[in-house]
Task: inverse folding
């Protein structure tokens, strides 16, 4: 039960901060006259800010039943922000917000992250966990797409005059598109593809690219914070995508350890998936 509490708090702390920041990014991309949407975004910001604060008041000794109820509350908030993001996506795609600065792919991307968070909370509360070999493929398909999107956002939000960095971002975008296709190939070859050597190689290959994208994001974040490059990337967005790459790396490492049969005591696979 302690593991359930630990895993729940870890997921909620990570993703509620992410959801809070999405609310800010969406707000910054709306037009001044979109006051209703700005208000809604502000509302989500404070909801997830409160959830984040509450998650830090709980600890490993909190009653699991209390955490179960908290997870339901967070689940509802995740569902609502997902609905909001899909509504905004519809407005942008149907040209109802001309001149706004939220890319449709970015809004869709943040809605996929909300959906992932929601599913994670359901799995935690139901105790219904995906088998390891399925989780390895599904989590990688999800996160490779996330990483490929990040590379595209960075490439489009850098100033076009930052030619070298824009080229690098495009290379990462191609690299992750290819990795995503490979992951989907592996997925369609299930269950035959789910052998230990193939899955292990899959994780190794993905890790190499995620490490280099993570380093690129870290450099970009530091350059943006120090105002050394030209872009319209908010410093918090640069840090946000860096943290998401770190999260993916932690998940890859955890899978690798489980495949090798090493089960670190503080990171139990079964309570994550
Ligand atoms: Fe995000
Ligand atoms: Fe993201």
Result:
């Amino acid at each position: 039960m302690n593991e359930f509490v630990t895993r729940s708090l870890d997921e909620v702390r990570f993703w509620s901060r992410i959801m809070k920041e999405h609310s800010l990014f969406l707000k910054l991309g709306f037009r001044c006259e979109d006051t209703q949407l700005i208000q809604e975004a502000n509302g989500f910001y404070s909801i997830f800010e409160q959830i984040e604060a509450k998650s830090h008041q709980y600890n490993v000794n909190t009653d699991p039943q209390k955490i179960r109820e908290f997870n339901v509350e967070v689940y509802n908030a995740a569902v609502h922000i997902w609905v909001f993001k899909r509504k905004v996506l519809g407005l942008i795609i149907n040209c109802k917000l001309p001149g706004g600065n939220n890319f449709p792919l970015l809004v869709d991307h943040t809605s996929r992250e909300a959906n992932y968070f929601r599913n994670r909370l359901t799995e935690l509360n139901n105790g219904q966990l995906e088998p390891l070999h399925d989780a390895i493929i599904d989590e990688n398909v999800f996160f490779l797409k996330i990483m490929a999107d990040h590379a595209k956002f960075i490439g489009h939000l850098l100033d076009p005059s930052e030619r070298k960095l824009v080229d690098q971002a495009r290379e990462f975008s191609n690299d992750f598109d290819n990795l995503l296709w490979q992951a989907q190939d592996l997925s369609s070859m299930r269950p035959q593809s789910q052998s230990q050597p193939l899955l292990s190689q899959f994780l190794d290959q993905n890790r190499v690219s995620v490490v280099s994208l993570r380093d690129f994001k870290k450099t970009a974040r530091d350059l943006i914070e120090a105002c050394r490059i030209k872009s319209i990337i908010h410093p918090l967005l640069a840090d946000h995508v860096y943290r998401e790459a770190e999260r993916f790396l932690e998940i890859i490492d955890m899978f690798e350890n489980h495949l090798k049969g090493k089960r670190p005591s503080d990171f139990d696979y079964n309570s994550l998936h």
In short: The two ends are 15 Å apart (CA to CA). Residues 18, 22, 110, 113, 240, 244 surround fe (ii) ion (ligand 1) (CB under 6 Å). The CA atoms of residues 37 and 226 lie 31 Å apart. Confidence is low (pLDDT under 50) at residues 264-273.
